[in-house]
Amino acid sequence: MTVLLSTDGDRISPVLDAAKSFLLISAGLDGARSRKPAFIAEADPIAKAKRIVGLGARVLICGAISWPLEALLASAGMRVIPNTCGPLDEVLDAYFSGALTERAFLMPGCPGRQHRHRHRRGAGWRNGW
Length: 129
Hints:
By secondary structure, this protein is an alpha/beta fold. It has helices at 45-54, 67-75, 88-97; strands at 2-8, 11-12, 21-27, 33-39, 59-61, 79-81.
């Protein structure tokens, strides 16, 4: 399984749209995890979404995210877990243990991690976006 986190130092970046640093985590069945840093400088949501999806992760854990960027990522088949905050290692441990749903990792002021997609149909840019 491969998971991507938006990073700000050793914490989840508070806003994905402005994030440039990412950490790609590959987890094996034996529990071993490898880490690979990634840098995405694009500010345009379409270009940023293409670069994020191009990293090969199926799951993105991030802080706040604009609905257009979230919709682009979801239309490409990526599972987005938004409104997350906290230290990277704690967030990763919570994700892999199934405890990321706890309010301890929810950004202050956010009611939850519900999805706001206005359109989920179609394959997005996989079919010529």
